[in-house]
Design brief:
The complex is a heterodimer of chains A (326) and B (354).
Chain A lengths: L1 E4 H15 L3 E5 L15 H5 L4 E3 L4 H13 L3 E5 L7 H11 L2 H4 L9 E6 L14 H5 L5 E3 L4 H13 L4 E6 L7 E4 L12 E4 L4 E5 L4 H13 L4 E5 L2 E3 L3 H11 L2 E8 L4 H12 L9 E5 L7 H7 L3 H14 L1
Parallel strand pairs in A: 2-3, 2-4, 4-5, 5-7, 6-7, 10-11, 10-13, 13-14
Antiparallel strand pairs in A: 1-8, 6-12, 9-11
Chain B lengths: L32 H26 L13 H10 L5 E3 L5 H7 L3 H8 L24 H15 L5 E6 L6 H12 L4 E7 L2 E2 L2 E2 H4 L16 E5 L3 H16 L5 E6 L18 H8 L3 H13 L3 H24 L7 H4 L10 H9 L1
Helix pairs in contact in B: 1-2, 1-3, 1-10, 1-11, 2-3, 2-8, 4-11, 5-6
The chains are: A alpha/beta (326), B alpha/beta (354).
Bound molecules: thiamine diphosphate and magnesium ion.
Thiamine diphosphate binds next to strand 4 of chain B.
GO molecular function (chain A): oxidoreductase activity
Cofactor (chain A): thiamine diphosphate
Keywords (chain A): Oxidoreductase, Thiamine pyrophosphate
């Protein structure tokens, strides 16, 4: 066990995967000598060599396309897109190819690749560096979207993503890269994909979230406890395919649900969760489902960024409104 | 404005002229009758498949189909130059290449008939299926090449694309990374002069498409794409170059799309019959047949037997395709992931229950 930040846990998982499997390669812009702009790949080129830790040209379509071709021909590429805002040129490759290759060849060619990208706001980054567009990716059939919320989860989920025979987009909440640390065992153990984590058990209300918003959501749960309210906190972990059963089971017990995400409200992934509960747990619900989300606007520059990000106070307001409903 | 012609060569390599006369000494392989007959037979088989596919589409028994009429020499020449351990990444007009690689006629009918099983090739297991999003197969070819290098395999990734594809960012990004990483990848452009209704002359201000290789630090060549011997020879050399660790090549094959863009297209909206007619004189089958007849005594009997053979193979394959029942509906889920996620079980049950 060693205490690690999320960035260290990611680096440790990458090193473990490179160590365990010769078919794993790491590629992306500035991932080699520079160790990645967030240092996720720091030291890997020195350990595993430039053939396996590859600086790519500045070329997002090629990064995704090369990863697909290499994956289909037997490698397990872990490609990095430097920031989620620069992922769009890769979406053609992801949606039209990575997500479909196994299906359209009826299993003949697989695509065991991982595309990593830092995402989300809260670090006062320049324009285009703070968006959360996970719902766009989660809408693509055939693609897994995985989002860790803490160092140990980042380690275990990234190993699972790399070992998975299908393509995974691994979105790293960069606000959490260095803000928290915890004990992580570099034991090579993967965590289960498609499985939500119950971060805190509770009986009055279910709070569903993922990624960096786990922080504010847990803070809200702590405040609520002081008020005598017991909130269950669920971290989705995998957005697609997501663990509907865990959410349905929790809401069946609590009867109330607040969904928290940083991405804009409309057509965000919270809408999917709310719709699923409306379809399957209507009779359990004691109050309307509430979503606490980013506003339906362009991510503001850093001076207004804090006003955009869902705050603990907004989560508390939403929880109180569902508690007061009936 | 200075023409790029002044800077980049525009010569087009050919082995046979349009009448089938050798242009100088032919490459070694092209002096062997059996080799020439095999290539000719594959072009005839491709054209027979093409005609049948159009007929099936016109009678509602196949989906939208992209004819390769007049461009058979490109796919056939490319695939004849390739080895089994190479990997083909075709576009949607490369039926000749797929057939030579060992994709069956039945699989090809299945694909164009709207059945994913057509991509589950029994033969070339590592070859990619047809790529519809223009030029997007090219970065993937670079990835296949990277995997080959990584695994120490001697293969080369060979991707085909159209003239329109050379305007896409994917094309440039792929060429660039092949150059930067010295990858064993060969890109063959079927310059059939058209991208649906857009003539090549409007696609780019470049005089040639081959010159686009220069920007990526790669060799670029222009070949008469209606000359199967020239195509095969150019690809053979490019493959040897790549196998020797010297990196990729861009080959521009000049041809002409004699048919509509697809069965959903009506080319009379944007070009005249008079524009097309002269190109019939340069088409690839006539040319090789003339040469075979003059230089190798290819007889009328052999020609008739070949046509009959291709017709019967194609008809048999078409009958088998038509007789095949569609997959059960839940097949649309079964291969989405290696293991069906629990999340999809309700959908699977619903499809099972019909
Ligand atoms: C990215 C993309 N844009 C548009 C289309 C629609 N489309 C299909 S084929 C085609 C023209 C392609 O021209 P070219 O690359 O010259 O190939 P050809 O059809 O002549 O073989 C277009 C625009 C597509 N399939 N993919
Ligand atoms: Mg064209």
């Amino acid at each position: 066990m060693a205490e690690m930040t999320m960035i260290e846990a990611i680096r440790t998982a990458l090193a473990r995967a490179l160590e365990d499997d010769d078919d794993v390669i790491v590629m992306g812009e500035d991932v080699a000598i520079d160790g990645g702009v967030f240092r996720a790949t720091d030291g890997l080129v020195q350990r595993f060599g430039a053939a396996r830790v590859r600086d790519t040209p500045l070329s997002e379509t090629a990064i995704a396309g090369v990863a697909i071709g290499a994956a289909a021909h037997g490698l397990r590429p872990v490609a990095e897109i430097q920031f989620m805002g620069f992922l769009y040129p890769a979406i053609d490759q992801l949606a039209n190819h990575a997500a479909r290759l196994r299906n359209r060849t009826r299993g003949r060619l697989g695509c065991p690749m991982v595309l990593r990208a830092p995402f989300g706001g809260g670090i006062k980054a320049p324009e285009h560096h703070s968006e959360s567009t996970e719902a766009m990716l989660a809408h693509i059939p055939g693609l897994r979207v995985v989002i860790p919320s803490a160092p140990a989860k980042a380690y275990g989920l990234l190993l699972a993503a790399i070992r998975d025979p299908d393509p995974v987009v691994f979105l790293e909440p960069k606000r959490l890269y260095r803000s928290v640390s915890e004990d992580v065992a570099d034991d090579g153990a993967a965590l289960a994909l498609d499985t939500a984590f119950v971060l805190r058990e509770g009986s009055d209300v279910t709070l569903v979230t993922w990624g960096a918003m786990v922080t504010e959501t847990l803070q809200a749960a702590t405040s609520l406890a002081a008020e005598g309210l017991s909130a269950e906190v669920i971290d989705l972990g995998t957005l697609k395919p997501y663990d509907r059963a865990a959410i349905r089971a929790s809401v069946a017990r609590t009867g109330r649900c607040v969904i928290v995400h940083e991405a804009p409200l409309t057509a965000g992934f919270g809408a999917e969760i709310a719709a699923d509960l409306a379809e399957h747990r209507l009779t359990s619900l004691l109050a309307p489902i509430r979503r606490v989300a980013g506003y339906d606007t362009v991510m503001p520059y850093l001076r207004l960024e804090a006003h955009y990000m869902p705050s603990t106070a907004r989560i508390l307001d939403a929880v109180r409104s569902v508690m007061e409903f009936a | 404005m200075a023409s790029t012609q002044a800077i980049f060569p525009t010569a087009v390599a050919a082995c046979l002229d349009a009448a089938g006369h050798p242009q100088g000494k032919l490459p070694d392989f092209a002096r062997d009758r059996g080799t020439l007959v095999a290539m000719y037979s594959d072009m005839v088989r491709t054209r027979t498949f093409d005609a049948k596919a159009i007929a099936l589409q016109r009678t509602g028994r196949l989906g939208t189909y992209a004819s390769c009429l007049g461009q058979e020499a490109i796919g056939v020449g490319v695939a004849h130059a390739m080895r089994g351990d190479d990997v083909l990444l075709p576009a949607f007009r490369d039926h000749g290449a797929q057939l030579v690689r060992g994709v069956t006629l039945e699989e090809m009918f299945l694909f164009w008939g709207g059945d994913e099983r057509g991509n589950d090739f029994a033969g070339p297991r590592r070859d990619f299926p047809v790529c519809i999003p223009v030029a997007s197969q090219l970065p993937q070819a670079a990835g296949v090449a990277l995997a080959m290098v990584h695994k120490g395999e001697p293969g080369v990734a060979v991707a085909l694309a159209g003239d329109g594809a050379t305007s896409k960012g994917d094309f440039y990004e792929a060429l660039n990374i092949v150059g930067a990483w010295h990858l064993p990848a060969v890109f063959v452009i079927n310059n059939n002069q058209w991208a649906i209704s857009m003539h090549r002359s409007h696609q780019t201000a470049c005089d040639t498409l081959a010159q686009k290789a220069v920007a990526a630090g790669l060799p670029g060549e222009r070949i008469d794409g209606n000359d199967v011997i020239a195509v095969r020879d150019a690809v053979r050399r490019a493959l040897a170059h790549a196998r020797a660790g010297k990196g990729g090549t861009l080959i521009e094959c000049l041809s002409y799309r004699l048919g509509d863009h697809t069965t959903a297209d009506d080319a009379s909206r944007y070009r005249e019959d008079e524009d097309v007619r002269p190109h019939w004189k340069a088409e690839p089958l006539v040319r090789l047949r003339s040469h075979l007849t003059k230089a190798h005594g290819w007889s009328k009997d052999e020609e008739d037997a070949l046509l009959r053979g291709c017709q019967s193979q194609v008809n048999t394959a078409a009958e088998r395709y038509l007789a095949m029942t569609p997959e059960p509906p839940r097949a649309m889920l079964d291969s989405l992931f290696a293991t069906l996620p629990e999340d999809l079980l309700p959908a699977a049950r619903e499809l099972d229950d019909g």
